[in-house]
Each structure stands twice: as C-alpha cells, then as structure tokens.
Design a protein that fits this description.
By secondary structure, the chain is mainly alpha-helical. It is about 70% helix and about 10% strand. It has two domains: about 5-210, Cation efflux protein transmembrane domain (Alpha-lytic protease prodomain-like, Up-down Bundle); about 215-290, 2-Layer Sandwich (Alpha-Beta Plaits). Strand 1 (about 235-240) and strand 2 form a beta hairpin.
Amino acid sequence: MKKADLTAQQEKKKVALISVFAAVLITGGKLIIGLLTGSIGILSEALHSGLDFVAAAITYFAVKIADKPADKEHQYGHGKFENLSAFAETLLLFVTCIWIVYEASHRLITGKTHIEVSVWSYIVVISSIIIDFSRSRALSRVAKKYNSQALEADALHFSTDIWSSFVVLIGLVCAQFGYFIADPIAALVVAAIVILIAFRLGKRSIDVLLDRASPENIKKITAIIHGIPEVLSFHDLKIRPSGAYTFVELNIHVEPSLTIEQAHEISHKVEEKICAVIDKCEVHVHEEPENNHKAI
C-alpha cells in the first residue's frame, strides 16, 4: 500500500473511531436524562443517537474494509463497502422515525404529555449539540478530503442530531412554562428532519450501488475529451463509482495513419487529463481508427 493511501486510511479510521466514542457518550447521557424526566423528545433523541452509534460502528468497519486493495473476488476493489454502509445507516434512520412517530402520536392521542424538566435536561441537550457540531465538522472535512461516502453519511447523522436536538431544546423550554404538548410535537419534528436526511442519504448510496453514473462527471469527461484535438470522436463512455474511487472506460477514435505508439500516447494523454480532474480515478481507453462508426 502506498504511503499516501496508508495515511488516508489511518486518518479515516481515526475520525470514525472518535465518532463511535462520541456517539456512546451522547446516547448514554440522553437515555439517562430521558428516563429520569420522561421526556419523549429526549428519549427519541436517545434512540436516534443510539442508532447513530450503530451507524458509526458500521462506518468504522466499512472504512477499514473499503481501503483494502483489489483481489480475485473483488476485482474493482472494496470501495462499495462504504456505499453499503451508507445504505445501512439509511435503514437505521428510518427505524428511528417509526418509533418516534409511534410514541409521540400515542402521547398526543392519550394526552399523557407531562414531563419533568430539570437543569440536567438542558445540560445533556446543549452538550449534545456542541459534540455533534464538532464531530460533524471533523467527519465532513475528512469525507471531503478523501471522497468517502461512509464518513459523509456519518457526518450527516451528526448534523441531523444538531437540528433535532435544537428542536428538542425548544420543546423543553415550552414544557418549562407548562406547554407539555410541545415535547411530543418536537419529537415529530425530529422524525421529519430524520426522514428528509435519510431520503437524501439513501438515494445517493443506492445510486452508487446501482452504478449510476454522475451527470457531473459525464459533463467533465466529455469536456476534457472535446478539448483534446488528437481525439476525433469517442463513444461508449462508461463511469462506475465505487466508494471513493471512480472507474472510467471509453473508446476514442484517432487518425488511421497513426502508429500504435502514437495512438497509445494519445490514450495516455486522455487518462492523465481525466485523472487530473476526478480524484482516485482509474481510466481505461481503447483506441480505434476513425471510420464511419457512430461516435460523439
């Protein structure tokens, strides 16, 4: 493994492991205070954070596996373990929503909305917001740096916690003044936020798992090839995302009079230009003599 790849793996594993410990701390605090106060808002947040712990653990192991080199069984590498991890986190988020909606709706229907608000309620929620903010920023930074969808999904989990915790905080303030109905309503708002984030995250992970090519990358590669005068036309452009990696295949047409070596130099030029624009990209180019073949 190259030194740069080893450094990337270590940094991703470190930020993922710290997130696991952060999730444990947040979940424990919310669960204890939620049980003591009877707040459905805080308990819903505890469940949300508990699933975040599971998601963080999944992310940690996914990052470890995804950076393994290609082998006979996984010829394109193990990158899609990251995308599979992101999809698993989406399912966990939807499980969270089902419980939150059920419990909050039950309390609204039965009228059992009274909760005990203490200073510890505010401490655990505010502390959660601070920890979630720091973890979200750290995960987003590393995810962007190494194009890691698993870490990006984890960052979305923590950023979701920030907003949902803020909503719960508002519910606690309202309950402090006797408006106890605000607590289950706050929990329903939490569920709505989680559903929105889960949908976005799930769509992206499914797109990658189904090998959906990014329209943005198609435009970039098309512009690059059109900017190379030696390439007369091209066809059968295929883009396959896998974790942090992108695999590109295409056929280019060149002058029939060129030697094999000259044609190879042109294909090498195409590969270099594409890899300069798309990080962690592996490109395979097939050269053909220009003829009447339908091409772009």
